[in-house]
Amino acid sequence: MDYFEQLGVSRSSTTIDIKKAYRKLANKYHPDRNDSVEAKEKFQLIQQAYDVISDPKKRALYLKQNYTVITDPREVADSFWHSAFN
What we know:
The protein is an all-alpha fold.
């Protein structure tokens, strides 16, 4: 699942928006407040998503790995040949 969808925010959200969404969901699914097994699993997923998209460096890497928009076909060819010979 997409980390942004996990927290219910858009890819263009600010760190403040991400933090607000995380706190709201963390309060709802925290194991101390919610005893269900699903809540514990959901809380772990929320925590993982927040760890990645709240840090600007990790967020940029995540976006680059998962949502790359190809603008130059030479980039595809270069990455293909690079991976083919390594």
